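Protocol step 4 of 6: structure prediction from sequence.
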Amino acid sequence: MGVRPPSNDVDDEPDVVEFGIAALDARLADADVDYPVSKTDLEDRFGDATVPYDAAGHEMSVSEALAGTNDRTFDSKAELLNALHPVFEQKRQSARTGLLAQLRAMIPF
């Protein structure tokens, strides 16, 4: 997922803020991952790396995301991202349960 950051007429900032599987996809694009790949191999390689799960920049580790799926191997990048999408989505939704958190999510600062 991604959202546009607030505009402040500065051209050197990204056009979108990536989070969830979009941010993970960008990280995987920079890495040389051979598929099929096991959950263990991904944890060894990316386990401590963090990925934002919402537009506010809250992060979770790749190992935490992988722990949220029952799959042990992934035959393709698409299969990996599809398996992790519900994990990131659940984390994003559970982080916004309070009224104050929802108000902060609406204000672009």
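Step 5 (inspection) to follow. Residues 96 and 103 are 9 Å apart (CA to CA).
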